[in-house]
Specification:
about 0% strand; Na+/H+ antiporter like fold; about 525 residues; disordered C terminus; mainly alpha; homodimer
């Protein structure tokens, strides 16, 4: 009887999905418990724990399947880019301390955008020069450009788990902000590289690449800002909370997701869009919902991001023992290891070549009379170190470049995937392991003065002046001030831009889109 | 160059998912806004609005695709049973007023379990007898049994949106509780039917069916209870909130989902498991987390359930205009309509045959001296009416029975799918439309006395007695009471069982698994 078999097939088909999901969810729960128990541990953090648990789970599955396979779910960029990345990036935007983020906006952009360009160029040129010498051949020009981008995307989770927002606010906000902008930049740059004609690389191609990049960057940001403002405005005018808090929450979650999907659909950068949507939502929309919705959204987004992150690290750990890829890699072990070594070297070099010059430039931009440079050498070393780890974005981009839906039959491509996985494992485990001791050594606890590390923090004098500069002042005073501020703009550009943005925000934006009229000290 | 095409293909492949998701999320947002604006409307509720919007969207897509297709996502039971149903049922268990649910436990079980058996028998026998007479032939014995179950699963969302928990607490809790148990019973019964040998239907088969059913029912419940207790216990002992509220939330969400998946994996009823897991979690685990996690969980689960529900109604509306199925149906329009009419008739009849006798039985079980029957005729009519609507579970079960992964090539099967969709649309739109007026007519506002409708509510005397019956009393008093309670058990079984459960809960369960030691009036 056909019907009966149909149903049996259907049941089997359902189990095909049910088994891996169950195993994965169970391992995730285990990760959470272990992460909780390791919370006070000095050496191991959550990401490292998740990767190790993933490796162990991979080994167990490899053993149970008699050496056939180590993973229960194939790594798919779809899963990663459609379901896991959006909550992480949205939450980053939603939870960012906006005031500090915008005060350090230019420095963050320097590190996050120009830094990626520098680092990607060095890695591309370096690998182009080194790989053939090491006997690793077969990559195309586009592949080398992609390699540069793949290994320029940093993963700052390890560092952020060690830095304390209250103890080193500026350092935290720089590392955090750079991490997000860096992710977005790498993905946008990666997509821009896919579009250019690599057969004729000349100065025009480079210009075209940069043009493409800035077009993607600005349109994506504009889309995110639009979505955030529309959500804020509709929440304010319709006031959903009157009837049910559930609708407010649903609208916020769905609009955030829609912004990401729409950006992807328009071939923009979903990451940037959803990041700015998150910033706008927490700046305006969040103030238009009921009290319980405010608490809930904070936690909902943090939880989704947390689960997605743990999921990714587990995944990477499990994928490390993927026998198919190891077998496919026909490159000798020595060549593989030397190419891996050269990539790690190039990462260290590329990061140094971007962080130290850019820090010096940032110190020049943020200069103040009679003050020591705001980014000390120790801070620069920590920023350099924070960007050494490679994570899920690298893996996802590598899969996108070197496989077709997670499968590859080309030995060179397989070797590049293996290389990427080793680099991610090595940097996360070894560098990640050393992060806590390094930071404790560089910034001993209790010694840190809150005002010591300050790219944009206010001096006492400014604190006094700010409340007086309200937007209710008379015109004449404003004109007088305008002269002062022109001087200010030249002397201290970053601070001044931020100051005028706040005035504009208070006068025009908040009355329309919501939010308290006088900025609270931290929001 | 192969690589380039690979990436293009990949991008197209991603878009294949991105477009439907974007459209669906956008329509969902629209639904939320329209539902909010219709909140004060007397006639249209959210489900009806979602179905109508789905129909309109389907028509637009049909028009844009030039008559080819009306749906952007194929209805799949995987989507429904793995992703949409679990949050709805879990939330039902999590938000249920446990005290009233357990006070009315026996009545709810009567309606939800025995009621489904009665109704399914009547619909099976009735359709078996009527369909061939109407010229609708080709269904097997198993199909008829399945039809009985498919049309016995009720959708009480429409009624619950009209009934007010504060005005008619007992009626609300009965309709709500029955709705959940009914869903679970239908699915369990449906699965039990798949297993029996229909070629020899005799009294042994029936007994086997009932045995299978109760085995599934009890094991699923036990699994759910176990999961709930394990979660509560681990939250209490590990106290995740010490380090981060995010882990508490993640553990609760993941464990709930894991309970569902594990039940499905063990071929039990995930619905029942996750329902009881929800009850246990809100009864114990919820008290072991931080204050902000409590607020967040309440809203997170409500939101997920709300979105999933709206999603399903949209889906059903969109699927109604599926041209493929309409074309496949080679049965004449007259036959289709008469079979549809007979199904609606059988639903009305089957529901009446279960509600009225069972209400009488329930009134007998809950009898009290010198009191009028607790379920008045008006209440019985409302309960009868509340169970007339058919919803997503019917559709999902019909797809499971009559299609293979959402596709069918058999005209009889296609006709049954079409029939199910018409029945769901008709009952939700027509009966749902009449629900508000009916209830306003049967239970005029402000006239309802809270103590009037009372299956298990306490009489003033009991209210006085309860606080004295604490577990700290001396043994002798307890023995004396035991005699009294034996009499009580015979006279008023429901109340007594609940009373002893509460004592057990206070003495043994709460100290281990968490929760306030003296039961609050409503929890």
């Amino acid at each position: 009887m056909g019907m009966f078999e149909f149903i049996r097939n259907l049941a089997d088909q359902q189990h095909e999905r049910v088994v891996p999901i169950s195993v994965f969810v169970a391992i995730l729960c285990l990760c959470l418990v272990i992460g909780h128990l390791l919370e006070d541990n000095r050496w191991v953090n959550e990401s490292i724990a998740a990767i190790l648990i993933g490796c162990i789970a991979g080994a167990v599955i490899l053993f149970l399947s008699k050496g056939k396979s180590s993973h229960i779910l194939r790594f798919s960029e779809e899963l990663f880019f459609i379901y896991l990345l959006p909550p992480i990036i949205f939450n980053a935007g939603f939870q960012v301390k906006k005031k500090q983020f915008f005060q350090n906006f230019i420095t963050i952009m320097l590190f996050g955008v120009i830094g990626v360009f520098i680092s990607a160029s060095i890695i591309t040129v370096g690998s182009w020069w080194l790989f053939p010498k090491l006997g690793f051949v077969g990559l195309t020009a586009r592949d080398y450009l992609a390699v540069g981008t793949i290994f320029s995307s940093t993963d700052t989770v390890c560092t952020l788990q060690v830095l304390h927002q209250d103890e080193t606010p500026i350092l935290y906000s720089l590392v955090f902000g750079e991490g997000v902008v860096n992710d977005a930049t790498s993905v946008v740059l990666f997509n821009a590289i896919q579009k250019i004609d690599v057969t004729r690389v000349n100065s025009r191609t480079i210009l075209q690449l940069i043009g493409d990049f800035f077009y993607l960057f600005s349109t994506s940001t504009a889309l995110g800002v639009t979505f955030g403002l529309v959500t804020a405005y509709s929440l304010k005018t319709l006031y959903f909370g009157r009837h049910s808090t559930v609708r407010e929450l649903a609208i916020m979650v769905l609009m955030a997701y829609l912004s990401y999907m729409l950006a992807e659909l328009l071939e923009l950068s979903g990451i940037l869009t959803v990041f700015f949507c998150g910033i706008l939502m927490s700046h305006y929309a969040w103030h238009n919902v009921t009290e319980s919705s405010r608490i809930t959204t904070r936690h909902i987004f943090a939880m989704m991001s947390f689960v997605a992150e743990t999921f990714i690290f587990l995944y990477v750990g499990m994928d490390a023992l993927d026998m198919e890829k190891w077998k496919m890699t026909r490159v000798s072990f020595g060549t593989l290891m030397s190419s891996f070594g050269s990539i790690v070297l190039l990462i260290l070099l590329g990061r140094a070549a971007s962080v130290f010059p850019l820090s010096a430039f940032s110190n020049y931009m943020n200069r103040r009379p009679q003050r020591s440079p705001s980014l000390t050498f120790k801070h620069q070393v920590i920023i350099w170190w924070a960007g050494l780890m490679r994570g899920a974005v690298s893996i996802a981009l590598a899969f996108k470049q070197f496989t077709y839906s997670g499968v590859t039959w080309d030995p060179v491509n397989a070797a590049m995937i293996t290389n990427t996985i080793i680099v991610v494992l090595f940097t996360t485990l070894v560098f990640g392991f050393l992060t806590k001791p390094l930071i404790y050594y560089m910034l001993p606890h209790r010694v840190i003065d809150k005002n010591d590390s300050s790219v944009g923090s206010k001096s006492p004098k400014e604190d006094m002046a700010l409340p007086l500069l309200s937007f209710e002042e008379s015109v004449s005073t404003n004109i007088l001030r305008a002269k002062d501020s022109l001087t200010m703009l030249i002397e201290r550009p970053v601070y001044t831009v931020h100051f005028y943005w706040r005035k504009f925000d208070d006068t025009y934006m908040r009355p329309i889109f919501g939010g308290p009229l006088s900025s609270p000290p931290e929001c």
